[in-house]
TrEMBL record:
The chain crosses the membrane at residues 35-56. Pfam families: Peptidase_S15, PepX_C. It comes from Durusdinium trenchii. Residues 1-29 are annotated as: Disordered. Residues 473-715 form the Xaa-Pro dipeptidyl-peptidase C-terminal domain. Gene3D superfamilies: alpha-amino acid ester hydrolase ( Helical cap domain) (1.10.3020.10), alpha/beta hydrolase (3.40.50.1820), Galactose-binding domain-like (2.60.120.260). This is Xaa-Pro dipeptidyl-peptidase C-terminal domain-containing protein. InterPro entries: AB_hydrolase_fold, CocE/Ser_esterase, Galactose-bd-like_sf, Xaa-Pro-like_dom, Xaa-Pro_dipept_C. Keywords: Hydrolase, Membrane, Transmembrane, Transmembrane helix.
């Protein structure tokens, strides 16, 4: 990727002041919108005070009712084995809990402005400087900086008087503000920029994670460290840069890090999408809920339609923080109307190799967004993650068991991890906003992810005056390490130098009539169960009535005599006998029946559209993340399947009465079943609340065979010392 023409500072004008510059704190009432918002809030406050007695009365009655229910019923929350389910019990932190401050440290200085890219597009940039980078006479002390390319606005501007209550009146990043605060406390400068086509930046997003977007990141780094800059390095930069991002922003970070810019010293990527088809079209079925929600949010942010996000949003927010004048902000936002329509593109593809038109007029496929094997000319023919591994950069990957990116994190670490690589896998949903407590209600996370990032970057980019008193235990060894949270019984953090951890092997359970058995001796000579018809009644909190009403199939083991830890990706191998339908979907849920016989506990899931069942040899990164089987004679049935998803390989179900095999994998997890519980497998024909329906699914779905001659199996990756069941 050529960067001969470097970025440049915008010529000074009232529309785009020169470079990044100090910002002035906004006056209390700076626009008619502030007056309207203040009046609406005042009216709302009066109404709220009038209704307060009634609201408190309703809450008291509801609280008494819920307390009575808990007293009169068995409550799995009281299970002592689960009582310490808290991700904040991080053994390597002196300060457990807490996710960072809700304001930047006292004395933080914010510079803002536009940096002009080599193609003329203006990128909005905030430079947040810690107190240690500011001299008494207005000069700067050089410090390392952390670069963050923001898809969802680098900062939000609030209306008065709300802004007076948040971050001392300065714009705030609601997604990553606590992370930035922790970095500023450690003496790092934070450079946060809106990607082109978003926030206060100009330009158009022609496609997600475009090569031009990656070049923007590299040119911004050039601007910071003085490459191709007449004025040289920025006065607050010491020439060291780390790249950081969460979700989309993590994709921007690793794509830039793979280019081996000499100034980049480390990269932190949280909840990284590495194989967009297999993550957002698992089993070939579009995760319509996620994609539609994501696209709606992007469109509303890109076009500054705050009322579409929430009707009350305009009363408290103005929009993306300006980088210069509001006139320039309006001009940049108007350019976003030409952004690529991701949802329309997603709805038009049925296979991984289907071409779609992008904003530049070119075409691409989902394969072009894959980070493991898609070669890029700018990386000398390497794919992004192999090139990142070859760069030998210290790398911190973060993901969660309740997130589709967990598979990418495990595979990247298994196949590519080098010295100073770290992987954190917690009980988190996408972005790490919540700690998903299995068997209990979900709560906000306590794990100090911001502190972990802080420690990681301080270790690899030491700051004078900010040296850590001792090397954090989780960073002491140069060898790669994975730290993962085992959920369920006796939840706790564990660590390993490899993934999957040692002594984890696959063991099969055979499906029988409503049962899962550890031996095939219990199989019937002839046995099969028809998949239920597709409905829209699938729910994640399964009750016995769901199976009793024929909405799903349930298979359960006998009572587990001891605890049983499942670590990695389970595999379901189904032998199917066709009925009359051409196609069908399989949604499989691994669950636990608690010792008290209560509701089934959700653990993980997998899905497959049966017309995509054709497999091909798995790539090396998937093989590396897959533990071996305890039964070598049947090992091929337990290997994680790799479906091609190519259009030429789409295959309808065979004629009525004929049989075929379909295998699907579950998202990885680390979960310990309680002694006295049962392992449960729920199989459903659809999940209409989240996934696109199968247009070919009808009233005659196939049968699942479970006989001595036609066997179906569930393969679980289990700690080896527990295989004597």
């Amino acid at each position: 990727m050529s960067r001969a023409r470097g970025p440049s500072l915008i010529a000074g004008s009232d529309e785009a002041p020169e470079g990044v510059h100090p910002t002035n704190k906004a006056s209390r009432i700076s626009s008619p919108g502030d007056v309207v918002a203040l009046a609406a809030l005042a009216c709302g406050g009066v109404v709220g005070l009038a209704l307060l007695p009634a609201i408190l009365g309703v809450r008291c009655v509801r609280g008494l009712y819920q307390a009575g229910k808990k007293i009169c019923s068995k409550d799995p929350v009281l299970d002592p084995d689960m009582a310490q389910d808290c991700d904040g019990i991080w053994p390597f932190s002196e300060k457990p809990g807490g996710g960072g401050a809700q304001q930047f440290p006292e004395g933080t200085k914010r510079l803002a402005g536009y940096v002009k890219m080599s193609d003329g597009v203006r990128i909005a940039v905030d430079v947040l400087l810690p107190p240690c980078a500011q001299g008494a006479d207005g000069t700067f002390h050089p410090v390392p900086c952390v670069v963050h390319m923001a898809r969802y606005w680098r900062a939000w501007e609030m209306r008065w008087p709300i802004r007076e209550l948040l971050n001392r009146g300065e714009p705030w990043d609601f997604l990553l503000g606590p992370w930035k605060s922790a970095l500023l406390e450690s003496g790092f400068a934070v450079v946060s920029a809106d990607v082109r086509g978003a926030g206060a930046s100009g330009g158009v997003q022609s496609v997600v994670w475009s090569p031009r977007e990656t070049q923007d990141t590299l040119e911004l780094i050039d601007f910071i460290v003085g490459v191709n800059q007449p004025a040289g390095r920025q006065p607050w930069s010491d020439g060291q840069v780390a790249l950081f991002g969460v979700s989309y922003d993590a994709g921007a970070a690793v794509r830039a890090a793979a280019h081996k810019h000499p100034a980049v010293k480390a990269v932190v990527a949280s909840f990284l999408f590495g194989d967009i088809w297999r993550e957002l079209f698992p089993g070939g079925i579009m995760n319509r809920w996620f994609l539609q929600s994501w696209c709606n949010v992007n469109s509303r942010l890109d076009n500054a339609r705050l009322a579409a996000i929430h009707p009350f949003s305009p009363l408290i927010m103005k929009g993306a923080a300006p980088a210069s004048s509001r006139k320039q902000l309006s001009r940049c936002v108007s350019e976003h109307r030409g952004n690529w329509d991701l949802m329309s593109a997603a709805g038009s593809i049925k296979a991984i190799d289907d071409p779609v038109a992008i904003g530049s007029g070119e075409t691409m496929t989902c394969q072009n967004l894959e980070l493991f094997a898609n070669p890029l000319p700018s990386l000398d023919g390497k794919a992004v993650l192999p090139a990142l591994a070859a760069s030998q950069l210290p790398t911190l990957l973060i993901s969660g068991w309740a997130c589709v990116t967990s598979g990418t994190a495990c595979a990247a670490f298994s196949a590519l991890a080098g010295q100073h690589w770290r992987l954190l896998l917690g009980p988190w949903n996408h972005g790490g906003v919540q700690h998903v407590r299995y068997c209990r209600e979900t709560k906000l996370l306590k794990f100090p992810k911001a502190k972990a990032v802080q420690e990681f970057l301080l270790y690899h980019m030491p700051r004078q005056g900010f040296a850590q008193s001792s090397v954090p235990a989780w960073l002491a060894s140069p060898k790669p390490e994975v730290h993962f949270y085992v959920c369920g019984a006796s939840p706790a953090w564990q660590h390993s130098t490899e993934w999957p951890p040692k002594n984890v092997v696959k063991k099969q359970l055979w499906l029988s009539t409503s049962q899962l058995t550890w031996t095939k001796d219990d199989l019937e000579h002839e046995g099969s169960t028809q998949l239920p018809k597709a409905t829209d009644l699938v729910r994640y909190k399964w009750k016995a009535s769901a199976v009793a009403k024929g909405r799903a199939l349930l298979f359960e083991t006998s009572v587990c005599p001891t605890t049983l830890a499942v670590i990695g990706s389970a595999v379901l191998t189904l032998r199917l006998r066709s009925s009359k339908d051409q196609d069908a979907d399989i949604f499989a849920y691994l669950r636990e029946r608690p010792p008290d016989g209560g509701d089934l506990v959700y653990i993980t899931e997998g899905a497959l559209r049966l017309s995509y069942r054709r497999e091909e040899e798995a790539p090396d990164h998937e093989k590396a993340a897959d533990p071996h089987s305890s039964d070598s004679s049947m090992a091929s049935f337990g290997v994680v399947p790799h479906h091609s998803y190519r259009r030429q390989d789409i295959q309808m179900l065979p004629a009525e009465g004929e049989t075929t095999t379909a295998r699907l994998k579950f998202f990885p997890v680390a979960y310990r079943f309680r002694a006295g519980s049962k392992i449960a497998l729920v199989i459903a024909p659809d999940d209409a609340a989240h996934y696109a329906p199968n247009p070919l699914a009808g009233p005659h779905p196939p049968f699942i065979c479970h006989s001595t001659s036609e066997q179906s199996m569930l393969w679980l990756p289990i700690k080896e010392q527990q295989l004597s069941l």
